[in-house]
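Supplementary Note 3. Input sequence used for the single-chain structure prediction.
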Amino acid sequence: MKLEYVKDINGYDEHAIRLSDFDSSQANKFREVINLIIDNKTSIELTSHDFIELLNIKLTLRVAEEDLGITTTDYVDFFCDLTIDSYKNITKLLEPFCRKESRGYQWLYDIDTPIGFLFSAGGRW
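The predicted structure, written as discrete structure tokens, is reproduced below.
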């Protein structure tokens, strides 16, 4: 599984953090990480998981009072601030990727922010 920042995905100054190139086993591992956030109400930095290859960024998933999405100040360290309910929704969105191999993709939240969070088995959107 690869983690990367993709700049200007559509010509409207919108960008994405993309988790890509994974199989159902890795999708399950990522869902376990999300469940740890939900169960422990804690932040998790994805650099600490060996099944994720960081290409050009670091991403920390944090629990927040409101959904802010992904932010950064330096385009190296990114933070995803979501509520517990939004993380629970992500686990539901990951389910099809965990059950069987896929080449599809899924946006993991729908928040009006310039940086989206893309889960893309085939590496595309």
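Residues 24-40 form the longest helix (17 residues). The two ends are 16 Å apart (CA to CA).
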